[in-house]
Amino acid sequence: MSKFEFPPSILSRPIWGQLEPRPGTYHLMIADAEGAEAILDVATPELMAQCHIIHIPKGTDFAARLSKLNPAQLYEGPSYEAALPRIRRVLGDGHMGLQIYLAGTEGLMGQAMAEAMRAGIPHSAIQTEHRGSTGRRMQCVHCKGITEDVETDPFVCSHCGLNLFVRDHYSRRIAAYQAVCVDAEDHGNIPEQKGIYQ
Amino acid sequence: MTIQFNDESFRDDYSFHNSERALKRFPFPFHEDSYMYSVNMEQHRGGPADSVYEMRFDVDEHYVSEMKDRAIVLDQDPLRCQSLPHMTLAGWDLLELIMVSKSEDYPDLFELHRDGDHWRWINRPLGIDDSFTFLDETTLPYGPMEYITRQAQGDFAVLDQRDDMLWMDAGMVTTQADWSLDFDIGMNFFEWHAPVPKAHEMGIFVRALKFLLNIQQGAPARRLNWTMTVNPLLDTSPENYHKWGIQKTTLTPENIGRKQHLRVELQTFYRLPRSNALVFPIRCYLCAFEDLTAVPKWGRRLHRVVRDLPVELATYKGFIDNRPLMLDYLSQFDDGLPTSSGIWPDRESEPPLQK
Predict the structure, then answer these.
(1) I need a labelling partner for A178 at 20 to 30 A (CA). Which of A197, B44, B128, B153 fits?
(2) Range of the domain at A52
(3) Given B180, B191, B244, which is nearest A12 (Cβ)?
(4) Which residues of B touch A173 (CB under 8 A)?
(5) Which stretches of B142-245 are assigned E, i.e. beta strand?
(6) Could you say which of A114, A130, A146 is where a domain stops?
(7) What is the pTM of this model?
């Protein structure tokens, strides 16, 4: 088990839940890394008979255990980007009664949720459960570039190189937190880096 | 009264200035000697002659230069104007509202001729004379919201209303107090206000939302909001904060009167007829401390408000580091005399500075 208790925050910050089986005609489960544990926890033979699991291992090894659940379809992708065309196809084919389960890092859940919203599914109808890394997907407000899996505050934008601080303000559409220049009022004065939740 | 449009800049050499007339009509936002959040809404049904409340969409001496500044911002960053696909009808509603209001309120500056769906719009200050078909996007050089808000001062947030909630689904945002439309677009009322300290706990946003959801066609509302800006910079965007942030450190006792500006937003709220969307114009007025303090009542009051503002708010509004410098300057204009209630300058009845 690798569950993390997020501290209370502002109202734009997403609150992740805990997966539970819901009645549906088809179940799409998307997870990365330890998110697989949440799938293992929620799986029932009834769910799995109509289930499509998409897992991005990120160096973890859950393939055998997921396979043993005997889902209708199981796909392991090398990265979220590689899995995306498949996710879009499945969402595009979705009918009434499709249930969506997202588990793993905030970056994975956020991106898959944005994709499901683009397919017309309200965010409130999507189940989520955080597992694994607490790294954040950050958008630089200046250059708009995304830096994935940010664990420290401040950090360096992987696109424009500015030193950025980590905000809790979150956009579901972009699936990222906002990052803002940390030394704009005192060039070169970069506070010491620490963990986001330190 | 004819308006003389200033030729001025809101960047680089900052030649922006307020005339005596502009100072007289400046919307000073403090009705008493202290400030705390409130749902300070009132009906937007005109106001004293030549005040910023008089017309539905105030046009003042800064109009032409502000529109040039907006065009510069949009050239540099087109993401400042966005509209989600379902908001096009609301854009037409807004275009109609502004064209009808301006042509009725300022007939010497704007004309609207309508023959069914065939419309002709004349904007004299900007030299525009366009004919187009209402509700046909292909007949305008931009989408309807962008077209008309390139010709109207202030930012515009266009809010969709569904599920008893307001959603920031379109906007033109180039004169903002440090928030990003590109980041906030698609958020609901509570989400885009999430970073504001204190007000959520005070229940401000719950009450404000309830009020706004019930705004009816033909019954617009308004309120004032404020912050501080060093230099008359309209585009205090997060996008460009790494460029303008450093300007906050350039204040000195010698230049503060000229450089430090009170930034006031006249926020109005209109229900739109076809889309049932709500448009939220956020009009920015800037005034240098040295001009404000020339009005005795405002000088006294500004000192007291800045002095007594809770640290959290001064931090959120971005002037906590400059507050001591501001207070040194402003204290010269506070002789301790009482002030009359309300926002108006009351120049005839308020005593001159006694020190």
Answers:
(1) B153
(2) 26-130
(3) B191
(4) 185-186
(5) 155-162, 165-172, 221-230
(6) A130
(7) 0.95
